[in-house]
Amino acid sequence: MNVITTLTERRREKQWNFEKKMLRHISMKEMEKAIKEWMFPILPFQFQAYPFLIDQCLDMTIDAYLLGTEFGRFGYYGEPAQEVRKRCEEELTDLSHCLCATLTGWSKEERAPTEALLAASDMLIGTWWEKGFREASKAYKLRLH
Questions:
Q1: Which of 33, 64, 75, 106 sits CB 3.0–4.6 Å from 137 for a disulfide?
Q2: Quick check: 44 and 120 in contact, CB under 8 A?
Q3: DSSP the chain
Q4: pLDDT tens by residue, 90-130
Q5: CA triple 111-116-119, angle to 5 deg
Q6: What Cα–Cα distance (Å) separates residue 33 from each residue in 40, 44, 54, 73, 78?
Q7: Is the pLDDT reported for residue 65 higher than 70?
Q8: Degrees (nearest 5) of the Cα angle 9, 24, 52?
Q9: What is the Cα 41 distance to its own chain's centre?
Q10: First to last CA, the chain
Q11: What is the C-alpha to C-alpha distance for residues 133 and 71, in angstroms, rounded to an integer?
Q12: CA-CA distance, 108 to 9, in Å (whole number)?
């Protein structure tokens, strides 16, 4: 007796396998270093008082990286990264705003530095999206997908 699978299940399984392959290319230490580089100057005391905030930042950066890998095939076909980024601008903005809102919620100050924090969130998410995009483009060129 054969197992019947639907096309959506097969696509999702293939996508998971590709994401697993792409996640092998990143380093958690490199991500933590980037988070400390972008976020610590703005909220130094919050990260010392609440070390679990780094984990939430890691989750968002991993999501941005995977979003970049998802759109990496367009880079393989010759589309520039700036044009591809326009396709997923809404998702990147949502990730950035979610990260900013999470970190602002843990700030004890009445006037949290939201503009600087939003800019840092945008830069962090954008940087990791670019890395995912480049890695996926490279994987498609090497036919590792």
A1: 75
A2: no
A3: -PPP--HHHHHHHHHHHHHHHHHTT--HHHHHHHHHHHHTTTSHHHHHH-TTHHHHHHHHHHHHHHHHHHTHHHHHTT--HHHHHHHTHHHHHHHHHHHHHHHHHT--SSS--HHHHHHHHHHHHHHHHHHHHHHHHHHHHTT--
A4: 999 999 999 998 888 877 666 666 888 899 999 999 999 99
A5: 140
A6: 10, 14, 10, 28, 31
A7: yes
A8: 95
A9: 21
A10: 30
A11: 6
A12: 45
CB 125 within 8 A of CB 56: no
The angle formed by the CA atoms of residues 73, 74 and 78, to the nearest 5 degrees, is 115
Cβ-Cβ contacts under 8 Å for 22 (sequence gap 6 or more): 65, 66, 69, 132, 135, 136, 139
- 55: amino acid identity, one letter: D
